[in-house]
User: Fold this.
Amino acid sequence: MAVSMYQASVPVFVKGLTNLRAILDKATAHAEAKKIDGSVFVNARLFPDMVPLSGQVQIASDMARGTMARLTGNDPPAWEDDEKTLADLMARVDKTLDYLKSFTASQIDGTETREIKRKIRGQERTFTGLNYLLQFSMPNFYFHTTTAYDILRHNGLEIGKLDFLGSLG
Assistant:
């Protein structure tokens, strides 16, 4: 059985963001229980030259949203990157999930060969839909969701691999 573009995109992004949302919720509860200002987490980084948690969540959101828009031949909706609190980040994830869930299989399936042009680090790149999804978007999405997880784990949040993976099955 072949995997469709829809199956390889929307449910994967939804699961990853749902798990990220749950981790952010745990971070909120942890901050409240330990009387830690939530902005400590929002602004935390793994290394000074990396973007903070807020940026990791924003980019993961952008990757999912942008990919689906581009696969359907549209520009992604523009959203400000102005989240300052854990609640703001959770709201952004919720908004992204709502956007992703608005797509149907009929809109996405068959986009494997759609030409997608993107300027990346100042250089124009051309992808097929399949290549864009599997070799650009998904690796970037996983990089930023993993880094968000790592930032929170590094800062004392008691989460494990199953928090990142979510329910299995």
